[in-house]
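Researcher: I'm preparing a figure for a lab meeting and need a structural model of a single chain. I don't have an experimental structure, so a prediction will have to do for now. The sequence is pasted below. Please return the structure as tokens so I can convert it later.
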Amino acid sequence: MSTENAAIANRDEEPARRAYHLNVVKQQIDEAPSWLVSLIVHVVLLLTLALMSAAPGVVGRIELTLQQGVDESTSDLAEFSIEPIELERPPSNELMESEVELETLAFAPKVELVSVVPRLETLDHWHPHVEIKFAEPTVSNMFRGRTGAMKQKLLKEAGGTATTEDAVLMGLEWLRHNQLSDGSWSLRGPYADGARNENRVGATAMAMLAFMGSGSTHRGGKYQKELWRAVRWLVQKQDSQGFMALDAAPHERMYAQAQGMIALCELYAMTGDSWIGPYAQSAVDFAAKSQSPTGGWRYQPRFDSDTSVTGWFVVGLKSGEAAGLEVDRYVWPKVETYLDSVSANRQNDYYAVGYSYKVGDAPSPSMTAEGLLCRQYMGWRRNAPAMGHGLNTLAANHPIDVGQPDVYYWYYATQALHHFGGPLWTQWNEQLKVVLPARQIIRGKERGSWPPHNDAWGRHAGRLYTTCFSIYCLEVYYRHMPIYDHVPAGSTVGT
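Model: Understood. Here is the structure written out token by token.
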């Protein structure tokens, strides 16, 4: 047969061959189990939808950037887990892009989603965070006094001086010199008189708060570089539940966790930087889920409460609210119940209104100051009788005593009295602006720091602790906007 005749024969046989193969396929489909047919149909549909979504101009496309990693949770934290998105680990430390259903993001607030995030070059483990562009944060009036003309106005009105500002700057320089190569800080060194226990998350968060209190962020200010390195280190410590402080001692973990939450929330509130939002939100969610049934927080999630740890979480959650993050509204009534349980409001009580460390304990100055600050943030009016009685008692009976330093007490009392304003604040600040700068080391290797010796907790927590808390006290004039309207020095009636 000629080549031409063979081609004609093959052409004539092609329809028959196709019909034969179609019959074979049809017979195989008829004989296949129903689940296999369903699977094939769904695969075809998914491929079709994928091709459609890849086309330009498709409406409603949701692009997400995922960071994925190993969940380093402990048995103590497992019951509070925020369910991660199950994905395979990427082959290298590269950010992945994927499309997932919005309903699966149980931890994500209702916000605009984008796929932009800076690459964290030094990440050595990964966490399932969805990068979220939050709505422009409402900073309220909480952090807007830290820079510019407002800072100078508040500094002058509240009684700050060139001496207090010089002390702050020297303290921040000491912190800068003691930042470790990976961006973190240590409670134990490399300076003298470190803490007994290491807590790098707590140390890093405390240092960050000192820099931010003076107006710097990772996007601007004198200490931009230090904060950028610090926040990169801090977010690496956060697991899928929002927990950061696994490496701290058991009785210090929740302190460090709350301090880390405050640092992330403040940084997000001050900058609106979208990639920080999910880390801050995750920390806020962890705080709500770890609240004890008694209404506060202590050393373990959802187990017991004390006023010391509770105060840090209250400030952290209020910082989250100021940043525009979602805070479970059911948290606050439970906190109120706890604060009621540790307050003493008896007519003949020595403290008039005092707060104790735990239920059944006697009131103490530091816990009273911390409890009253929590009440201020949670809505007590300035003219509430218990507010004035409590702060009057602190100012009269427990002024700043250079012979018995206690920067923890000074930290909370300074904030509560500054917000309250009036003659009580003036009286307190007359001591504060003199005593604290006078205690600062001004020569030698530790120039700019505050010594931990003889401090109520400094001998345990170390030099970085006393330095950071002293800086916070001297930044009080502008670190947080006053909760109440400015009160003239001779006034006793407020909002």
